[in-house]
TrEMBL record:
UniProt cross-references to PROSITE patterns, sorted A to Z: PROKAR_LIPOPROTEIN (PS51257)
Superkingdom, natural source: Bacteria
Key word Flavoprotein present: no
Keywords on record: Hydrolase
Keyword Hydrolase on entry: yes
Pfam families: Sulfatase, Sulfatase_C
Entry GO MF terms: arylsulfatase activity
Name this protein carries in UniProt: Sulfatase
InterPro entries per the UniProt record, alphabetical: Alkaline_phosphatase_core_sf, Sulfatase, Sulfatase_N
SUPFAM superfamilies in alphabetical order: Alkaline phosphatase-like
Family: Belongs to the sulfatase family.
Residue span, Sulfatase N-terminal domain: 34-351
Amino acid sequence: MKFLFQVLLILNTTIVVSCASKTKQKQEVDKPTNFVIVFVDDMGYGDIGCYGATGFTTPNLDRMAAEGMRFTNFYAAQPVCSASRAGILTGCYPNRIGISGALFPHSDTGLNPNEITIAEMLKEKGYATGIFGKWHLGHHKKFLPLQHGFDEYVGLPYSNDMWPIGVDGKRHPVGKGAGKHPDLPLIEGNEVAEYITTLEGQDKLTTLYTEKAVDFINRNADKPFFVYLPHSMGHVPLGVSDKFRGKSEQGLYGDVMMEIDWSVGEIERALQTNGISENTVFIFTTDNGPWLNYGNHAGSAGGLREGKTTSWEGGQRVPFIVKWPKSTPAGSICSQLACAIDILPSFAKIASAEEPKLKIDGVDITDLWKGDTDLKPRKEVLFYYGKNNLNAVRKGNWKLVLPHTWASYNTKPGTDGRGGPREQMKVETSQLYNMMRDPGEQYNVIEYYPEKVEELMEVVQAARKELGDLNVGIESGVGTREIGKK
């Protein structure tokens, strides 16, 4: 009898433990996923150790890639500031929603309030939302982050070179050149907290943004959250804290990259300390390629052609790392096509959130993040630039470059914060490149593959109908929408 009682007790304990274990597992599965995006300015494809960087080290980013997934064919939405940011936050090609180029302090436009951002989408699901860094989607109050779904904001409303201070630290004459710009406002919430008026004032930005993001994570660790950390660096003028100044072999740009890497480490440490790293989708990527005419103050395109503001690979193909321990295979590499506009629908899928009712261009790539890298959720990438110029399309391994003009970096670069000249160039007739064999876009093979040209031109014609193409005189398409106006 005693033996039977012991057996029953053991069985009962086993059942209780088993049920408790299943309950714990269910709670873990049901726990909402957090999202973090670190978005760097003007950092090239070759500016991370695991992407081939030299002259400085990026141990935290390399570890992030080793514990997550690195993409090799990931594209920014456009190769320039405001447009790229509009794309990552709305899931739309920027020209669909009227955003192009870089907005200036005198601009009276911004992100239309009708557009739904990642923050607004997740807020509907009960997420806390914070942005710490460069906004650049309209500096007037109606366009600022708090009016687009963010609970908290600390950062600059536009690029850090849009101010009246020269590379020598001296103020430009009022009303002349850069002297037309106001002092650089650091905004908290909807109000200016202070003005940055010296080069030394810019040295604090990377650390400031990082500390604000870490504090936000610590305060919201017990609830689902979205952190968007768009660093002002490495946009010129470069600024770096004393803890990294002079630390790299490459010089000031390398120092800046090392501090960006430190920032990634601080975010990961906060996630680990709060026990939420396992259930957080942590993304690192950049807004466009390097601003090459700034020479030793610019990054590397990693062997890709040209850089920022061009539709060649160096302008728009960027590093992308995702770490999601719960789902992403550690140390994996994905070579499938993907774009920054795919992040919003992917977050929607993970958070079981409703996508915007207005049409978007992004596709769900969560299956890639989960390791099913044989899938091809994105079939093509459109390379728009300027107000609405379709300069190229890529489908699979083939890229068709259409007739267009661009400013080339194939000139003598500037040094120490001064930009060198750029040469105006023109693609007279369409060119075809095989991205598998020729990522540097050196060998035009259009005469050998007429069937590929025909296939890619079908993509071009569909894009022109939907979004327009000023290169052929089509100002807008059936799917374009208005930019926000003051």
